[in-house]
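Bug report (template v2)

What were you trying to do?
Predict the complex of my protein with alpha-D-galactopyranose.

What happened?
Run completed; filing so the output is reviewed.

Input:
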Amino acid sequence: MKFPFLLPFRAFAALTLLALAAHAAPAIKIGFLVKAPEEPWFQLEWKFAEQAAKELGFTLVKIGASDGEKVLSAIDNLAAGGAQGLIICTPDTKLGPGLVAKARAAGLKLLTVDDQLVSANGQPMTKVHYLGISAGKIGEDVGKTLAAEMKKRGWTAADTAVCAATFDELATAKARTDGAINALKAAGFPENRIFKAPQRTGDIPGSFDATNILLTQKPDVKYWLVCANNDNGVLGAVRALEGRGFTAATAIGVGINGTDCIVEFEKAKPTPFFGSMLLSAKSHGYDTAKMMYNWIKDGKEPALDTRTVGVLITRENFRQVLKEQGIRD
Ligand code: GLA
């Protein structure tokens, strides 16, 4: 053997590498579960969470789960796969205590986003970390915008009515439509011309069906103002209104999210979808992912309750605002 001294060196190097691998901190893996993965809002949340994963160097596991059973089995899978944390917008907030217990048993840190968990008595679980929108305030801005646009158009209260497509089983949704209704009342809109169209499901078909029922009951209304939980709630109502001959000249709706209405704004001809309160998908995706990463890595616990704001976008300004917020090139 020519260089016998190399052998022990090689063995030493190999052993050192092995020892280093054994002592290295386990790779950080974070699950990000959303209730409606097909909706642009949640896709954008994921996109921003992925950006955080790339920048900070952790593994992001994206999970779509439309019911409670899927949520519970996703927690099992994450734990089995070595994840340390879960960020979740649950399809069912009433899963609250069960979900918390399951995550704890699985050793997963839990950060809820968008929809706050509720306990058995229906109260928000304020001890579970949460990042969501300032729902009441953003709803009020929807109501104020509708009242201002009605005035601009010279529509009288006698000719006009409000369609609030509601989804009261979800607290944040109720806070939004309640906020819009309160602001309309504060602007002087008569309470007896504000009608709720309760949605059976929180998606476009849910508000389409609910609005159609209302429109059948109120055939004499000349102008409609529309508010809802989110863009999809307003989109469903707008489609129902168009089905009855209403146009941008006779109906206006203001959504919330600003992400699920872009196609609508890009249509050559304006539709009754007037505007939307654009939320910060970056805070909801990037910031939550970063908070969870820091919590796992350095034990830095995030704030228990973080609320984000919204800004009005319309056909006039949406391109520029989306660009400014890094949502569109
Ligand atoms: C709820 C809604 C979503 C979105 C988020 C924002 O989950 O269903 O469309 O508005 O809140 O937090």
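What did the reviewer find?
Residues 41, 89, 114-115, 132-133, 172, 202, 229-230, 256-257, 279 surround alpha-D-galactopyranose (CB under 6 Å). The first strand starts at residue 29 and ends at 34.
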